[in-house]
Every structure is written in structure tokens, then in C-alpha cells.
């Protein structure tokens, strides 16, 4: 398995304060050469356009390989996630403290399931 840091690739996080804090304490926090962070803390005052803007900036950055997004936040920009087709950066929807993960809402997982049939796993 290749370590993301080996090639200078980062993870980005779009999540609530607890989620972002946990990942930042885990060491994923980074500022690029333009002093842009690789995370967005979303709270009740964060607009959908701010979430969309952060997602589009993270997707456009060449130094980000994975974007983690709280599933409840992903629901706010589902139209963008459904249209996103690129393999890198990979988009992973994650649960938060107050919102458990629901696989039926995960558009990336639904797309992946559509690539395989039950026969493939026998």
C-alpha cells in the first residue's frame, strides 16, 4: 500500500467541528503554498455555496488524493457528488457523531456496486 505522503498527496476533510478536529489531531492538517487549508469545518452557519466552493477547490487541487466528507454534509451537495466521475481525488462519505452512515445514500458506493454483479463475488 502506498502512503499518501510518499508522493506528496493529502487527504481533505469537509465535516463538522468534531470530525475535522479528530482528523487534524491525527495529523492530516496542511496548508498549501497559497496558505489554503485542506479542511472545511461546517456548522449551522455554513452555506451550501461555501460547501460547494470548498469541494470544488479540493477537487481542483493536484495535491489532494482523497476527500472525506460527512454524509450529512454530502446530502447538501448531492447534485455535485452525483455528477463527479473522476477517480482521484477519491470521495469518501463518512459518518459523524450525530449522523450515522447510511449506505443507501452514498452515491459513490451505489456507482461502485453497479460495476459488479453478484456473479463477480462467487
UniProtKB/TrEMBL annotation:
GO cellular component: proton-transporting V-type ATPase, V1 domain
Alphabetical keyword list: Hydrogen ion transport, Ion transport, Transport
InterPro entries in the cross-refs: ATPase_V1-cplx_f_g_su, ATPase_V1-cplx_fsu_euk, ATPase_V1_fsu_sf
Pfam family for this entry, one: ATP-synt_F
MF (Gene Ontology): proton-transporting ATPase activity, rotational mechanism
Tagged with keyword Transport: yes
Description of how the protein assembles with itself and partners: V-ATPase is a heteromultimeric enzyme made up of two complexes: the ATP-hydrolytic V1 complex and the proton translocation V0 complex.
Family the UniProt entry places it in: Belongs to the V-ATPase F subunit family.
Function: Subunit of the V1 complex of vacuolar(H+)-ATPase (V-ATPase), a multisubunit enzyme composed of a peripheral complex (V1) that hydrolyzes ATP and a membrane integral complex (V0) that translocates protons. V-ATPase is responsible for acidifying and maintaining the pH of intracellular compartments.
NCBIfam families: V_ATP_synt_F
PANTHER family xrefs: V-TYPE PROTON ATPASE SUBUNIT F (PTHR13861:SF2), VACUOLAR ATP SYNTHASE SUBUNIT F (PTHR13861)
Protein name: V-type proton ATPase subunit F
Organism per entry: Capitella teleta
